[in-house]
Amino acid sequence: MEITMCGATSSDLTLTDKSSAGCACCAPQDTSAELVPAAADDVTASFAVTGLTCGSCASRVTSAISALDEVKDVTVDLVSGGASTVTIHSSQPVPSAAVRTAVEQAGYQLTNA
User: Which of 15, 38, 53, 99 has a CA that sits 20 to 30 A from residue 60's CA?
Assistant: First the structure.
């Protein structure tokens, strides 16, 4: 049986050297990016949101919350069929009522706050 991966056809499945070019799973990783620590005055808050089932849902909630004043970044830990965790990074505390309104206008439910 022949298998085609990364543009090459082979009959064996030997591991590819990570230093070689290839697909996303075997291509070399860019290690030149530096991690920038969060500013000391950043505020982080997490909320549980229900009704998110896919990446599109997470994107809608991210967009809605990102539109709020002072919000710098929003991340979603998607749990399909359960409560997803939405984490907000901001320069000042964002009122829970504003987060609830943004989430509900996007079509989802905030379960805490």
Answer: 38
CATH number reported for the structural domain that contains residue 57 in this entry: 3.30.70.100
Q: How far apart are CA 55 and CA 66, in angstroms?
A: 16
Is residue 27 exposed (0-12), middle (13-18) or buried (19+ Cβ within 10 Å)?
A: middle
26 in a structural domain:
no
For 28-68, the pLDDT digits (tens) are: 444 444 444 555 578 999 999 999 999 999 999 999 999 99
Pairing of strands 43-50, 109-110: antiparallel
Looking at the DSSP bridge assignments, the partners of residue 109 are 50
Residue 82: inside a domain, yes or no? yes
